[in-house]
Fold this sequence. Notes:
single chain, mainly alpha, two-stranded antiparallel ribbon, 3 helices, 2 strands, about 5% strand
Amino acid sequence: MTVSDHDARSRKQGGLALALAGLTVAAALVSAAFAPYLDRSTVLGFPFGYFLAAQGVPLVLLILLAWFAGCQNEIDDRYGD
């Protein structure tokens, strides 16, 4: 791998990591910010804000991790690792 390939790969991996971190923080903050409004309705007897925090955010994080792994595999395939 040449130096320019290594630099390009590092930039792509860094951007991907920042995107994952940003989306993770956004998912957590959005559910917390809207919890008082969501708590007005219930799901299975629980306030919806609580239900979203307990069930929805972890599901979103799993989806983000799967997306991250797929993107990382593409980067690895492109740069020969």
